[in-house]
Amino acid sequence: MTSTPVPPSGESVAHGEGQHASHNLTGFIIFLCSESVIFLAFFSGYAILRLSALDWLPAGVDGLEWRMPLINTVVLVSSSLTMVVAEHFKGKEKIWLFRGFWLLTMAMGAYFLYGQAVEWSGLTFGFTSGTFGGTFYLLTGFHGLHVLTGILLMGLMLAKSFVPGNYNGGEEGVKATSLFWHFVDVIWIILFVLLYVWRA
Amino acid sequence: MTSTALSPEPPATWRRYFGFSTDAKVIGIQYIVVAFFFFLVGGLLAMIIRGELITPASDLVDRTVYNGLYTMHGTIMLFLFIFPVLNGLNNLLIPTMIGAPDMAFPRLNTAAFWLVPVFGILLIASFFVPSGPATSGWWSYPPVSLQNPLGQLINGEFLWVLAVALSGVSSIMGAVNFVTTILRMRAPGMGFFRMPVFCWTALAAQSLQLIGLPALTGGAVMLLLDLSVGTSFYRPEGGGDPVLYQHFFWFYSHPAVYVIILPVFGIFSELFPVYSRKPLFGYVYVCLASFIIVGLGLIVWVHHMFPSGVTQWMRNLFMVTTMLIAVPTGVKVFAWLGTLWRGKIRLTTPMLFCLGGLFNFVFAGITGVMLATVPIDIHVSNTYFVVGHFHYVIYGAAVMGIFAAIYHWFPKFTGRMPYEGLGKLHFLLTFVGANLNFLPMHPLGLMGMPRRVSSYDPEFAFWNVLASLGAFLLGVSIIPFLLNMISSWARGPRAPHNPWSAIGLEWLLPSPPAEDNFGEHVPTVISRPYGYGSGEPLVEHQAEIERALTLQEANR
What is the pLDDT along chain A (200 residues), one digit of tens a residue? Predict the structure, then answer.
């Protein structure tokens, strides 16, 4: 509350956001904890529906192809590592290396979304194909939205890194984005196990 | 403490209450006023419902309209009255009680508030779509809620789910803000065990929001998809499970009761010491009990589903956890009685509302333990016994506690004193009206009258007439309240900084406080709250601060 510099005077900072920049990360972590409960709700809904189903797979569907999603998983998990590397370089103030690895992380996230889209377009069942189709598209779609949000946040942070002298406030944004990305990553691992590894 | 720190007048005029302010004190009052607007709407629906039920025949409104009336009554009262009014109190009280200049995220706070009128309008708009408002009760269970006879995309149920989901977004934004503010912005010297109990209960309640609400949001998204897209999460014909929705709904909506009642426990804990001039009995235990209630409150939801085909071991387990909640709650009731014991009791309006609320709460607690018992619950499930029980909790205890808080802190945030005579009349009408309205529902339920019906067997007529008379009395009771609020804010006597001789940081601010509360002169807290009778100061330089405030009041 006292460590951050006093923001320039003006209308908007009369009882300002800028004064409490260090609260942003606290608030964001609290939000992430809350957000994880939505996934928990969807996961438990999926498990309950699947365990109580008489015929889990709709007629004509043999289950899910797992090779392509596995490649996707490897890419997404590695993107968490490249992000850690990016943050490491930021800590050493090697700004161009930070930008490079940050951009690589974004590209890997984008590849994941592309892979997801390819997988979706090759499927023979739809959103309304019983609880199997419903939960599959709900889980992957909701997670995909989070991946997209993560990529957009990263783009925003990348743009901010070009504003000179910006890393007084940008610091926390980078931390928050990275937390969010790891969160999205962990959720995907659980999702992968539930959807592709779990065989009846 | 210089005189510049205490700005003599609030910075702007009444106009700031109509704009996008980021000042928590303005937003707090905006929340409360909007909430009471919807309280009147929901109350009007209740008057029509009780008007229908004064005779056994279904003769006042059409049966389908009746289904819409009770659905909207419940939804409006919970999502548009109780939660917003409590968030209003949180906005007013949390920053001033902990000595913060504002909330941690003022703009997020503004956005959270302005979502309330948005989803309020969405919900009210459902009265005007061709199929009418949602008619499946405030819990919106499938398969009833999935019926869409006219086949329109925009129907009452659709708007209902949308409004509830937006209400969830608004509440999550609020909860992130309140929790961050309490964790990070307390005055120097204010450790957790020097924090007022209201802040403890707000922290507990908002933690519950953060854990529970996303489950309801997830469940509501799936309901919306079933309704509009044609998925079958809850449709048995597609392999779905309607009971799954009940789990999602009650995983949040049972803790929601604690989100409502915990801050009211906080209000009781603040007010009983002030009006009996004694420290709060067992302060530490009262604080900790709030979090025990949070923990237990998350593992009791299946007690709403005893007749929904859950297995026997689950019934037994959730019966026991539900009964265990009576323990931390009992600790609190005991602490309040210990505070009142041999105190110098002043029967002011806020104190009367607190005592009445406590009385009603204990009654609701007893019927609550009855309902937790599986055999009794199955016998009275979906009868008026349940309706009576939760109206005692929500109106008898929570709304009366909220009225107590409004009368108690009104002078602080408006700078005017409310009238005692009108306040006491309001209390009398409310207390008699609530008991006359809700007590007869218990014998009705035990006799077997189901809830959500517009016609009933003539043998139930006697108790229904009594209940309706009580409801009309409650309707009348709001008149002295509104008169009091409007007239005393317009030209009530000027309020000093501490009219009730209360101890707390908020009473060391002028009435009304400056926009940034203490500004840069936040006092250092040196003792526990509620030091009544000890003469110990709460903060450093307390005498100087109070002298400056008194001097300032003498000069205005």
Answer: 333 333 333 333 333 334 445 788 999 999 999 999 999 999 999 999 999 888 888 888 888 888 899 999 999 999 999 999 999 998 888 889 999 999 999 999 999 999 999 999 999 899 988 899 999 999 999 999 999 999 999 999 999 888 876 665 557 889 999 999 999 999 999 999 999 998 75
pTM (two decimals): 0.93
Are the C-beta atoms of residues B423 and B347 closer than 8 Å to each other? no
| Interface with B, mutate which of A38, A61, A132, A183 (most B CBs under 10 A) | A38
**A183 close contact with B: CB closer than 8 A:** no
- Compute CA A4 distance to the chain's CA centroid, rounded to the nearest angstrom: 29
CB atoms within 10 A of CB B72: 25
Residues of B with Cβ-Cβ distance to A33 under 8 angstroms: 210
Exposure on the CB side of residue B278, measured as CA atoms within 13 A: 18
| CB-based contacts of B64, cutoff 8 Å, min separation 6 | B132, B135
Of B104, B233, B240, the CB nearest to A27: B104
Output the six-digit token pair for A10.
């003006």
Alpha helices, H only, chain A: 21-52, 67-91, 95-121, 130-160, 170-192
CA gap B360, B434 in Å, rounded: 9
Q: How far apart are the first and last CA of chain B?
A: 19
Q: Would you call A131 an interface residue with chain B, using a CB distance cutoff of 8 Å?
A: yes
A22 touches chain B (CB under 8 A): yes
Q: What is the CA radius of gyration of chain A?
A: 20
Cα–Cα distance, B457 to A30 (Å, whole number): 52
Q: How far apart are CA B543 and CA B541, in angstroms?
A: 6
Four-CA torsion B301, B306, B307, B312, nearest 10 degrees: 130
